[in-house]
User: What shape does this take?
Amino acid sequence: MDGNFRIGNGYDIHRLAAGRKLILGGIEIPFEKGLSGHSDADVLVHALMDAMLGALSLGDIGCHFPPSDPRFKGINSLELLKKVHNLVKNKDYCVINIDTVVQAERPKLKEHIPAMKDMLSEVLGLDKARISIKATTMEGLGPIGQGEAISASAVVLLKSV
Ligand code: MG
Assistant: This one.
């Protein structure tokens, strides 16, 4: 039996590497390193997509957009987010709200969060007041705290329409 509401959570982590652009929440953030990956490695958008897919038990982004598929090499993750959003809409669900957190030691993300929200709001057609993006450091602990990686987690609530 299906309820009217479905909740999903997503998590992702990518290594930081020299010679890559840092893309988070669909925007480029000035930094000496970027996230490595097959796509643009936008860890925030990846976590968000997995939350949206998870809410409807539709698997994960690895099965929808396999890294072995050359079509997804270097792709803007916002294009993948549009595809996931279409899957949600085709299942007759809409996004109620999104809550995310990015774990990064550097760079400081606070000043970039409004632009990330604007971007996600535009792509999803969702009021900014329904999109939360938070950032935290890891207090120097572990690989993220040592500046080797950035991770993100996301929770999304969907409602049947
Ligand atoms: Mg990823």
Remarks:
- Residues 5-160 form a domain with the 60s Ribosomal Protein L30; Chain: A; fold (CATH 3.30.1330.50).
- Residues 12, 14, 37, 43, 46 surround magnesium ion (CB under 6 Å).
- The longest strand covers residues 5-18.
